[in-house]
Amino acid sequence: MWNKAIDQSIQDYMARSQVPGLAIGVAEQGEFIHCAGYGVQDRRTGQPVTPETLFHLASVVYSATASGPNRGRCAKRSTS
């Protein structure tokens, strides 16, 4: 289960590493159970990162992203 300690760890990492923003999706059994955006997309504009924010990725992660659950789309888990 996602909790405030995990959120705080992400924010601490971002501060230490000077990461302006990131998006995260956590999957369980092929479905996203948590999606969140942290920080900003652009320091100049201050536009926030959302789970739908698109990032430029290095070629080494293309295959992992493309083959991930829902093919990179962060979707809410069905409650039914």
How would you describe this protein?
- The protein has 80 residues and is α+β, with helices and mostly antiparallel strands.
- The protein has one domain (4-72).
- The chain is 24% helix and 21% strand.
- It contains 2 helices and 2 strands, in the order αββα.
- The chain has a two-stranded antiparallel sheet with strand order 1-2.
- Strand 1 and strand 2 (31-39) form a beta hairpin.
- The protein is globular, with a radius of gyration of 14 Å.
Brief summary:
By secondary structure, this protein is an alpha+beta fold. It has two helices and two strands.
Neighbour order of strands in the largest sheet: 1-2
Main β-sheet description: 2 strands, antiparallel
Q: Would you report the number of β strands?
A: 2
Return the domain count. 1
Distance between the termini: 19 Å
> What share of the residues lie within helices?
10-25%
Number of helices: 2
Query: What would the average pLDDT be, to the nearest integer?
Result: 79
How much is the radius of gyration in Å? Answer: 14 Å
Fraction in beta strands: 15-25%
- Which residue ranges are poorly predicted, with pLDDT under 50 across at least 5 consecutive positions? none
Structural class: alpha+beta
Order of helices and strands: HEEH
Broad shape: globular
